[in-house]
Amino acid sequence: MEHAASLEVSVISAESLRFPTATTRKNAFVVVGTGSCDRRATAVDQRGGAFPSWNEKLTVPFPPQVRSIEVDVRCKTAMGEKSVGRSTIAVSDFIGGYDIPCGYLHFLSYRLHDKEGKRNGIINLAVKVLTWLPQSCLRPSAPLFPVPAAVASDGALVGIAIPYAQTNLPYHS
C-alpha cells in the first residue's frame, strides 16, 4: 500500500478577478484540493476586491493516484458561495523529470477560467512537496475542469504554469 504524500500550497494572491454581478461584496477565498474529500480553504479576503491577497499556507494530502490539484477562487454571497474562477495544476508542473529536492519551493501563476470557460484573472501560488511522491504521480493527466474547445481554440494556453522568479530586483513593466 502506497502512503499519501503531502503538499504545502501557499495561496499568495489573485489578479484581475471579475465577480458575479449579483455579488455586492467581493469576499473572495480559495479552495485547494486533490479530490472531493481532500479540500482546504483560505480565509476570506474582504478588502482586496478584484486583487485579493491571502498569503496563507494550506497543507494538502496528495494520494499517489492523483495527477493534479484543483484551485477554485470563490466568493461568498447572500445566497451562498459562487465560483469566480478555476484552474487545474498538473503534478508535472512542480515535480517532473528534474532532480528537485523535497522542500523546493515553486512559485507559479495560473490563468483562472469561469464556469463558461472565459478567462477570469490569475492566481499566484507557491507549491512545496513536504513528503516525496512516488514516480507514478509524475505522469501527466487530463484536466479536471476542461475548458470548452471554442475558448481554447483562440490560441490561449490553458493550464500552463507561468514561472515566477523570486529575486531582489525591483519589478519593471
Protein architecture, described:
With 173 residues, the chain is an all-beta fold. It has a single domain (5-163), classed as Immunoglobulin-like, CATH 2.60.40.150. It contains 1 helix and 9 strands, in the order E-E-E-E-E-E-E-E-H-E. The strands form 2 sheets. Strands 4-1-8-7-9 form a 5-stranded antiparallel beta sheet, with no helix packed on it. A 4-stranded antiparallel beta sheet has the order 3-2-5-6, with no helix packed on it. The chain is elongated, with a radius of gyration of 16 Å. Mean pLDDT is 78; it is low at 165-173. InterPro entries: C2_dom, C2_domain_sf, C2_SRC2/BAP. Pfam families: C2 (PF00168). Residues 1-104 form the C2 domain.
| Range of strand content | 35-45%
Mind telling me which CATH architecture this is?
A: Sandwich
Give the radius of gyration: 16 Å
Mean pLDDT: 78
InterPro entries: C2_dom, C2_domain_sf, C2_SRC2/BAP
Organism: Nymphaea colorata (pocket water lily)
Pfam family, one: C2
Protein name: C2 domain-containing protein
